[in-house]
């Protein structure tokens, strides 16, 4: 299964915008970002 190459920058952009708008939820945004990137990386290798 191939992950679309544009998906990673889009996820990063959304996470960055959310951090700028809601800096109080930085920990949650970073955690969800890492989980999403990890899942996309695992599914790309399967």
List the uncertain runs: none
Roughly how much helix do the residues carry, as a percent range? Answer: over 70%
Please tally the helical runs, counting DSSP H or I stretches of 4 or more residues. 2
Q: pLDDT average, as an integer?
A: 84
- What is the H/E order? HH
Gap between N and C termini: 6 Å
Shape: elongated
How large, in whole angstroms, is the Cα Rg?
12 Å
The secondary-structure class comes to mainly alpha
Count of distinct strands: 0
Largest sheet: none
Strand content: under 5%
List keywords for this structure.
0% strand, 2 helices, 46 residues
Description:
The model has no long low-confidence stretch (mean pLDDT 84). The protein is mainly α and 46 residues long. The relative contact order is 0.20. It has helices at 7-21, 26-45. Helices cover 76% and strands 0% of the residues. The chain starts with 6 loop residues before the first helix and ends with a helix. The protein is built from 2 helices and no strands.
